[in-house]
Amino acid sequence: SGHETVFLVEDDPAIRSLNQQILQSKGYRVLTASNGIEAIEKANAHSGKIDLLAIDVVMPKMDGYQAALKMCQIFPDMRVLYVSGYTRDVTMEHGVPGTGLNFMQKPFSPDQLLNRVREILDSKSAARA
Q1: In the chain, fewer beta carbons within 10 Å around the N or the C end?
Q2: Mean pLDDT across the chain, nearest whole number?
Q3: What is the pTM of this model?
Protein backbone atom coordinates (compact mmCIF):
# COMPACT_ATOMS: atom_id res chain seq x y z
CA SER A 1 0.00 0.00 0.00
CA GLY A 2 1.04 3.59 -0.47
CA HIS A 3 0.36 7.15 0.54
CA GLU A 4 2.08 8.97 -2.31
CA THR A 5 0.53 10.95 -5.16
CA VAL A 6 0.53 9.26 -8.55
CA PHE A 7 -0.36 11.16 -11.71
CA LEU A 8 -1.86 8.74 -14.21
CA VAL A 9 -1.95 9.86 -17.86
CA GLU A 10 -3.77 7.47 -20.20
CA ASP A 11 -5.86 8.24 -23.28
CA ASP A 12 -8.08 5.14 -22.98
CA PRO A 13 -10.81 6.06 -20.46
CA ALA A 14 -11.50 2.45 -19.40
CA ILE A 15 -7.82 1.72 -18.70
CA ARG A 16 -7.37 5.08 -16.96
CA SER A 17 -10.38 4.44 -14.70
CA LEU A 18 -9.33 0.87 -13.88
CA ASN A 19 -5.75 1.83 -13.04
CA GLN A 20 -7.00 4.76 -10.96
CA GLN A 21 -9.24 2.40 -8.95
CA ILE A 22 -6.40 -0.09 -8.48
CA LEU A 23 -4.03 2.57 -7.16
CA GLN A 24 -6.65 4.25 -4.96
CA SER A 25 -7.61 0.90 -3.44
CA LYS A 26 -4.08 0.70 -2.03
CA GLY A 27 -4.06 4.20 -0.59
CA TYR A 28 -2.43 6.23 -3.34
CA ARG A 29 -3.76 9.68 -4.17
CA VAL A 30 -4.35 9.65 -7.92
CA LEU A 31 -4.55 12.53 -10.37
CA THR A 32 -5.58 11.73 -13.94
CA ALA A 33 -5.38 13.20 -17.40
CA SER A 34 -6.34 11.89 -20.84
CA ASN A 35 -3.39 13.34 -22.78
CA GLY A 36 -0.09 15.14 -22.38
CA ILE A 37 -1.44 18.65 -22.83
CA GLU A 38 -4.13 18.13 -20.18
CA ALA A 39 -1.50 16.59 -17.87
CA ILE A 40 0.76 19.63 -18.14
CA GLU A 41 -2.18 21.98 -17.47
CA LYS A 42 -3.21 19.98 -14.38
CA ALA A 43 0.40 19.75 -13.18
CA ASN A 44 0.75 23.53 -13.43
CA ALA A 45 -2.44 23.96 -11.37
CA HIS A 46 -1.52 21.32 -8.76
CA SER A 47 -0.20 22.82 -5.53
CA GLY A 48 1.00 19.61 -3.87
CA LYS A 49 3.76 17.16 -4.59
CA ILE A 50 3.56 14.53 -7.35
CA ASP A 51 5.67 11.51 -6.49
CA LEU A 52 5.22 9.43 -9.63
CA LEU A 53 4.03 10.09 -13.16
CA ALA A 54 2.67 6.94 -14.86
CA ILE A 55 2.24 7.98 -18.48
CA ASP A 56 1.28 6.25 -21.70
CA VAL A 57 3.87 6.84 -24.40
CA VAL A 58 1.66 6.91 -27.50
CA MET A 59 -1.18 9.42 -27.13
CA PRO A 60 -2.93 12.02 -29.27
CA LYS A 61 -2.01 15.72 -29.04
CA MET A 62 1.36 15.15 -27.31
CA ASP A 63 3.26 11.93 -26.73
CA GLY A 64 4.03 10.82 -23.23
CA TYR A 65 7.77 11.34 -23.39
CA GLN A 66 7.46 15.02 -24.39
CA ALA A 67 4.80 15.59 -21.72
CA ALA A 68 6.98 13.89 -19.07
CA LEU A 69 9.95 16.11 -19.94
CA LYS A 70 7.80 19.22 -19.45
CA MET A 71 6.22 17.90 -16.24
CA CYS A 72 9.63 17.08 -14.77
CA GLN A 73 10.49 20.76 -15.15
CA ILE A 74 7.53 21.55 -12.89
CA PHE A 75 8.23 18.66 -10.46
CA PRO A 76 11.97 17.90 -10.69
CA ASP A 77 11.86 15.16 -8.00
CA MET A 78 8.99 13.29 -9.64
CA ARG A 79 9.69 9.75 -10.79
CA VAL A 80 8.37 8.53 -14.15
CA LEU A 81 6.96 5.21 -15.31
CA TYR A 82 6.39 4.95 -19.07
CA VAL A 83 3.59 2.61 -20.12
CA SER A 84 2.78 1.38 -23.59
CA GLY A 85 0.91 -1.31 -25.44
CA TYR A 86 3.75 -1.17 -27.95
CA THR A 87 7.17 -2.72 -27.55
CA ARG A 88 10.12 -0.71 -26.30
CA ASP A 89 11.39 -0.54 -29.92
CA VAL A 90 8.24 1.23 -31.06
CA THR A 91 8.30 3.61 -28.09
CA MET A 92 11.85 4.59 -29.02
CA GLU A 93 10.37 5.95 -32.27
CA HIS A 94 8.38 8.36 -30.05
CA GLY A 95 11.57 9.69 -28.50
CA VAL A 96 11.77 7.45 -25.44
CA PRO A 97 15.38 6.31 -24.94
CA GLY A 98 15.86 2.54 -25.11
CA THR A 99 17.56 2.22 -21.73
CA GLY A 100 17.73 3.90 -18.36
CA LEU A 101 14.03 4.62 -17.97
CA ASN A 102 11.25 2.81 -16.17
CA PHE A 103 9.07 1.07 -18.74
CA MET A 104 6.08 -1.26 -18.44
CA GLN A 105 4.37 -2.93 -21.36
CA LYS A 106 0.58 -3.35 -21.47
CA PRO A 107 -1.31 -5.42 -20.69
CA PHE A 108 -0.35 -5.93 -17.07
CA SER A 109 -2.16 -7.23 -14.01
CA PRO A 110 -3.20 -5.08 -11.05
CA ASP A 111 -0.48 -6.73 -8.95
CA GLN A 112 2.15 -6.00 -11.59
CA LEU A 113 1.12 -2.33 -11.64
CA LEU A 114 1.13 -2.02 -7.85
CA ASN A 115 4.47 -3.82 -7.49
CA ARG A 116 6.13 -1.68 -10.18
CA VAL A 117 4.80 1.57 -8.72
CA ARG A 118 6.02 0.60 -5.24
CA GLU A 119 9.40 -0.51 -6.60
CA ILE A 120 9.96 2.81 -8.36
CA LEU A 121 8.82 4.89 -5.39
CA ASP A 122 11.08 2.94 -3.02
CA SER A 123 14.14 3.10 -5.27
CA LYS A 124 16.63 5.80 -4.43
CA SER A 125 18.00 5.81 -7.96
CA ALA A 126 14.78 5.52 -9.99
CA ALA A 127 15.03 7.10 -13.40
CA ARG A 128 13.29 10.31 -14.22
CA ALA A 129 12.48 11.72 -17.65
Answers
A1: N
A2: 86
A3: 0.88
